[in-house]
Prior knowledge:
- The chain is mainly beta and 221 residues long.
- The protein has a single domain, classed as Hexapeptide repeat proteins (UDP N-Acetylglucosamine Acyltransferase, domain 1, 3 Solenoid).
- Helices cover 6% and strands 37% of the residues.
- The radius of gyration is 16 Å and the shape is globular.
Amino acid sequence: MEQFTIKNLYTLEETIAAPLFEGAVYPWELLPKIGGYITELGKTLPKEQFTEVKENVWIAKSAKVAPTAFINGPAIIDEDAEIRHCAFIRGNAIVGKGAVVGNSTELKNVILFNKVQVPHYNYVGDSILGFKSHMGAGSITSNVKSDKTLVVVKNGEERIETGLKKFGAMLGDQVEVGCNSVLNPGTVIGRNSNVYPTSMVRGCIPAGSIYKKQGEIAGKY
Length: 221
């Protein structure tokens, strides 16, 4: 599981949430802590750069937020981010610098690193998306198992019990997810990997891979 640790998935310099990752090994350890972290961090944000538009919702003055978007707190929208028409941010969300949250996209309990793009009809829940990762139109994270049991991260014969009922996906830096793909609960995708459109993804995908379908994963290099 070494390649699916925080240090091998993410460039921490590319998120305002970097202090939250300190002391953790795997990124899903942070999911229960996102809301509290936002509330505390928001109080310290410089007022010349951020405005608390309503209780526990801080938006950078350089961010672009469509008047039809809905943002529930706690949430932080970092500098130069773009929140488009009818985006729905349910709370416990950090949207990084230069990130795009598009039309009819829903976020809940997430960290989007800088320059992440979730631009069209995406659902991203209980997930962490690394620097410059991108989810194609209609692709979603499924964050609850159909039998409602706790999520287990599986990498071949290796298994990690997370103790979490809600756990979507962990995307490393510069991951590309094709249109209309579903990332099943507990999916972890290594840096610089690509997922084919209309894929059903489960388990751990190594860094630098092309995921074509279950059991068919090719190396990019």
